[in-house]
Amino acid sequence: MKDQDIINIGKSVFGLCFLLGNMCLFGYLITKEEDFAIGGFLLLIVGSALNLLIILILLLSAVVIPSRSDACLKAIGILMINIPIAIIYALIGLNLN
Description:
Number of strands: 0
Organism: Chryseobacterium ureilyticum
Structural class: mainly alpha
Largest sheet: none
Helix content: over 70%
Protein name: Branched-chain amino acid:cation transporter, LIVCS family
Distance between the termini: 46 Å
Strand content: under 5%
Keywords: Membrane, Transmembrane, Transmembrane helix
Mean pLDDT: 92
Shape: elongated
């Protein structure tokens, strides 16, 4: 696997979680449908587990294959951008009711 492929994995997972989070948040804000809020909190749980699993795999990969450590750390950095966004979205969701 090339370095760019590793970084693309981080970007793809980040983009997917970010897009789904935006859909849930703004879907609830626009429609006030409870299903969007429930989906958002489920996404928070599942997305956190998915991101942590991928981060763990990337960390192990960086240790096992030191030549790929820069790409793995870049991908981890991209994935970690989701953490403050998820916290902000969770606070918004909790304070709406």
